[in-house]
Prior knowledge:
The chain has about 600 residues and is α/β, with parallel strands linked by helices. Helix content is about 45%, strand content about 5%. The chain has a five-stranded parallel β-sheet, with helices on one face. A three-stranded mixed β-sheet has the order 8-9-10. It has a two-stranded parallel sheet with strand order 6-7.
Amino acid sequence: MYQALYRKWRPRSFDDVVGQTHITETLKNQVQTGHLSHAYLFVGTRGTGKTTCAKILAKAVNCEHPVCGNPCNECASCRGIDDGSILDVVELDAASNNGVDNVRALRDEAVFSPVSVKKRVYIIDEVHMLSNSAFNALLKILEEPPEHLMFILATTELQKVPATILSRCQRHSFKRISPEALGGRIRFVAQQEGVQLTPDAADLLARLADGSLRDGLSLLDQCSGSTEITEESVLSAMGLAGNQRVVELLDKISEQDTETALSIFTSLWQDGKSPVSLLRELSGLLRDILMCQVAPRGGSGLLSGAYSGQTLRAFAARMSGEELLCDIDTVQGTIASLRDGRDPRTSAELCLVMLSQPSLGDSFAALRQRVAKLEKSVESGSVQILHRSEEPAKQTNSVDRTDINKNKISQYDNIPPQSAAKAPEPEEEAPPFDLEEPPTAGARDYDQEAYPRETTPPPRGETERVESADEIPDEAEDADVPAEEAPEARPFSPPGETPAQPAAVPGSEELWTTLAKELVRTLNPGQASIVKNQASGSFDGQVLTISVPNGFAKSQLEQGPTMELIRQVAERAAGWCVPVKVALTDGDQSADTEKLKADLSHFGNVKFE
């Protein structure tokens, strides 16, 4: 009868145990010196040798001719324990014998002396499955057992074992077996069985075993149907995607090429690959990239070994830590959701879409990833932030600011002395908006660089040249016209020509409609909402009045950069400089007051002053 490899090649001595030297050496020394404990607790993950060491220890303490702490495996005691004919060594499964009655029966039998060996040994596997009453029934005999009695408890979940049990046992923690040790043991078993196993296939089996020797031998047993076991045959037998396909999939995800990523997944699906296995491989690749990024000098001990260091370093340079954390969290969440019975293919496709298009995610991790990507783009210089101290490109048109200032000064030639005193101050910094130049109706055609229409010039009279900006007075102290009286707004034209009047002045409703559309597109969201929902405009041919219902809206629109922007947009819409003012709507304040009084009158005697 065929016997599974993990049973056939189960270690029979402490020296055969793989990867647990720190435990086997301690147990061998205790057997040699006779300093044995009455209760042991073996803790570790599956397939690390807990039950195997328990059986070896049971044979060692009863062996007639022990060899350096190891059982000889030749005496009657060793052979009887191996074939189960000696009833003094009992192996119990706590998953099926977890009641208090089972423990009571065990306690009643344990007081009798062994029949054919030195010590009666009870091996209780998965001891954390015992009920609370069963643990309580075990406490007394576990604390003060007879001299001929020994307990060996094994568990994979230490946190479920009561502290009263832990304090009565000598605890040994079994580690996961390293991939190197697993690969060596798998190659040894394959050689003894006459199986042709390539080194790459052995390393792949060791990685897939995830620290469990039993899993590694079971996978070898599953692949042994092939004449020669190669890496491709292992992937085919396990239903796993190749490493290169997973790398290609992640490459398209990082490039946000959703269509190609879904195409790769579809081809893997048609080849019979499991979506869960594919997502786990993708999660393992992301995890290795993260380890390579946060611990570049950690060595191969932190990596799974499934991917080359060059591939991992290339992805680590392209992807940020926030992006990796978000992607791992997304993949792990999708894997966990598949346990609820969801459609694996649809869930995997949604996961790939969210990975390749981070903007679709609404979690905090996705938001942090998008912010980190934006910061990286800003640092690299691919994104330019506009500050208020910078001129928009469309306004400067790549012309030096010094040349623009000279043009602004030269346009005031032949200005009378009293008007020269009213020369405009240097223009304010333009707001960081990119305004498109709409076609103007009835406006004259002239060079806007040499004659910018941002400032309305004062009236012209007798000529007097302004030589430099330093000669322009700061205040109109000697001017005949009072400083507080602004000159009448009129269309602007270049010096030396007759002021141009618009060919056709647009109507009030037409001007406000054009102005409102442009402002809603240009202003920030709050101010745009005021213009769209609360403001109304009227134009009497000279002044454009914007009416708003309350003081807050008025203060928002009267801000310096905002008013300057409104004037520029109005000038484009009308074809000449239109004075703009913001006013409160008549009667709204009184209407609000009356409504407030009406509401307060419901509360009884309220006095209004």
